[in-house]
Design brief:
Largest sheet: 13 strands, mixed
Strand content: 25-35%
Distance between the termini: 66 Å
CATH topology of the largest domain: Jelly Rolls
CATH class of the largest domain: Mainly Beta
Helix content: 25-40%
Number of strands: 18
Number of domains: 3
CATH architecture of the largest domain: Sandwich
Order of helices and strands: HHHHHHEEEEEEEEEEEEEHEHEHEHEE
Number of helices: 10
Radius of gyration: 23 Å
Structural class: alpha+beta
Length: 332
């Protein structure tokens, strides 16, 4: 692209967010651009939120089938003057050619990508809480402990932005519009199915119980994808890697929906990390030897003390309570 927009001439926060997204993903981006972007983003929390909206649109557009993109791109466009043709939304659309033409729809109909959501809601749970949410499209979300998500419905898509935590989705396929779950650089696209998405820091995992889902991970220049069927599980890393287990134990992975947690020769370090997601005092295993011990069993996520009481009988450890209330697991 040869035309360069001067960001100082832009007054609409949405246009600035689109400009910076396009600029940062262009081949011509400089260190000065990155510094200027960070100054703009940090100047106002609303700037950061609007930039996230643009990022979400990018991810959602890349998840659309190409035939849908062609239909949207073929819509008649209103006549515009030369200045209008250089809006950041066109800039963003052009820069998105690297995304397999998915964002050409932005250039073809920029107003359509700024349409207001017909449904917009935020949901969350605190540590140790589980919560069921019925959505207007008859889909059902079961939020696990310490989860935050934003749900938005648009004319042509239904989206969930999973900021942290875990959700079991029962998606109604009768609506016909894509249902897209976004978790950082990753996304899950379905029409109607039952699946679980868990996001931890810079990783996320997808387990499929019914139907089929398409999982994508990584930025547009290093995106990987996989189609998952019932019994499949995908683990996505912040590096862009995407690993698929064809015969995963998804029932155990989603046992939390029944208030259970299942350990099968699980390293103590991993068991402690999992238990700390739920209610109760914080648990530590400060010794390397204790962290390497393996544990097996089925326990209640609502009764962590029962696990701690049973632990010395299933592993060579002692359980001690520190003065600050934290629990320590030590090798015997």
């Amino acid at each position: 692209m040869t035309d360069r927009i001067d960001p100082s001439t832009l007054t609409d926060r949405r246009d600035l967010a689109a400009y910076w997204h396009a600029r940062l993903h262009s081949d011509a981006v400089s260190q000065e651009d990155r510094l200027a972007f960070e100054q703009w983003r940090q100047a106002d929390p609303a700037n950061a939120r609007q930039y996230q909206v643009v990022t979400d649109l990018w991810t959602a557009a890349c998840a659309l089938p190409k035939d849908e993109v062609r239909k949207l791109g073929a819509r008649p466009r209103a006549k515009t003057d030369a200045r209008a043709r250089l809006t950041p939304w066109r800039w963003l659309g052009g820069a998105a050619l690297a995304c397999g033409t998915a964002l050409l729809v932005v250039a073809a109909d920029p107003a359509g990508w700024r349409d207001a959501a017909s449904y917009d809601a935020e949901f969350s749970t605190v540590r140790g809480e589980r919560r069921e949410i019925a959505l207007p499209d008859n889909s059902v979300l079961l939020l696990n402990t310490d989860t935050r998500a934003t749900v938005r419905f648009f004319k042509d898509r239904r989206t969930v932005q999973l900021a942290q935590g875990e959700i079991l989705f029962q998606v109604d396929g009768k609506q016909g519009t894509p249902f897209i779950v976004q978790a950082g650089e990753g996304s899950v696209r379905v029409t109607g199915t039952r699946f679980d998405v868990r996001r931890d820091a810079d990783t996320f995992a997808v387990s499929v119980l019914e139907g089929a889902v398409e999982v994508r991970n990584g930025p547009w220049w290093h995106r990987r994808s996989a189609r998952l069927l019932p019994g499949n599980r995908a683990q996505a890393e912040g590096s862009g890697d995407l690993r698929v287990e064809q015969a995963a134990d998804v029932d155990n992975a989603t046992a939390w929906r029944g208030g259970k947690i299942v350990f099968r020769e699980t390293a103590m370090a991993d068991a402690v990390r999992e238990l700390n997601r739920y209610a109760g005092p914080r648990i530590r295993a400060p010794e390397a030897r204790a962290r390497d011990f393996r544990v097996s069993g089925v326990f209640s996520v609502d009764d962590v003390p029962a696990f701690l009481d049973a632990l010395p009988r299933i592993a060579p450890v002692t359980v001690q309570t520190r003065p600050d209330g934290q629990i320590e697991i030590l090798a015997r």
